[in-house]
Amino acid sequence: MPEELIGLIPAAGKGVRLNLPYPKELYPIIRNNRYKPLSQFVLDSILLAGVNHVVFVINDTKHLLMGYYGSGQRFNCSISYVVQEIAENNTASTSPGLAAALDSAYHLTSGKTVVFGMPDTIIQPKEVFLTAIQAARPTDDAVLCLFKTNHVQKFGMVRLNQQNIATEIVDKPQQTDLEMMWGCIIWRARFTEFLHEALNRREIYDFAQIMNEAIQAGMTFRGISFVEDNYFDLGTYEEIMELEKRYHEE
Predict the structure, then answer these.
(1) Backbone dihedral angles phi then psi of residue 201, each to the nearest 5 degrees
(2) Which terminus in the chain has less CB density within 10 A, N or C?
(3) How far apart are CA 13 and CA 106, in angstroms?
(4) Looking at per-residue confidence, does 155 or 18 come out higher?
(5) What is the DSSP string of 125-178?
(6) Which is it for the CA torsion 173, 174, 178, 184, positive or negative?
(7) What would the pLDDT profile of 6-24 be if each residue is shown by its tens digit?
(8) Contacts of 157 by beta carbon, 8 Å cutoff, 6+ apart
(9) Domains of the chain
């Protein structure tokens, strides 16, 4: 992908499940006797892919997050912040707020290739974005980084054809025969425009629906499977404890 890259990290959530006195993106993951906030894992992976400008989408309470990351100078990159406006009429969405959060940075992401990851996740390998960029083909509109999960009701499950092209996104199903979920995505400018139009002209707020409509419209979403690797979503204390237990066992 020779296009200009820009990182995109949506961090506008309230973090109500953890109920912390600070943004959940700053939850401490202690490694080698050093503090590393949870969100820095995805930032490091994005920067490893050659991205030098990253956008955090935040809400108006995330002052501590901005205080920690600042301009990005300490991380050898430029960091911008966009405050997400409150979206209406999206109560039926299985991923409320996500599409609107991604589109909030449209004025910065338009015309660029977006490298998107979630701030409350730890992905192994750390080269996930670099690998996906290197595997992308000129005809791909998006590359979905896929991981196995036993918690299908929490994720967007991906149906692939024999050429590893996504034919359907099944979002948070109670039951499914699908095993692979998308954990992070890289997409080109064409999908950025499609997302922007779906939200602002057709008032579609569900991110999975927007992806499915893009696929139906002929866009190519290639799946890159990281079968032997791990994706940790740390939205609850139980998930954080599971991660800590796994680290101690290794």
Answers:
(1) -110, -35
(2) C
(3) 18
(4) 155
(5) STTHHHHHHHH--TT-SEEEEEEE-S-GGGSEEEEE-TTSBEEEEEES-SS-S-
(6) positive
(7) 999 999 887 666 677 888 8
(8) 169, 170, 171, 173, 176, 178, 179, 180, 181
(9) 5-249 (3.90.550.10)
**Side chain identity, residue 211:** M
Q: Which residue has the tokens 């409509």?
A: 213
Is-contact 248 169, C-beta < 8 A? no
d(CA 250, CA 247): 5
Q: What are residue 182's DSSP bridge partners?
A: 146
Q: Which residues contact 3 (CB under 8 A, 6 or more apart)?
A: 112, 113, 188, 189
The C-alpha angle with vertex 211 and arms to 208 and 216, in degrees rounded to 5, equals 125
Locate 232 and state its tokens: 């940790």
70 Cβ partners below 8 Å, 6+ apart?
Answer: 79
Looking from the CA of 91 toward its CB, the CA atoms found within 13 Å total 1
Segment 71-90, tens digit of pLDDT = 999 999 999 999 997 755 54
**Predicted TM-score of the model (pTM):** 0.90
Nearest-angstrom CA–CA distance, 191 and 144: 13
Residues 240, 27 contacting (CB under 8 angstroms): yes
How far, in Å, CA of 72 to CA of 79, rounded? Answer: 5
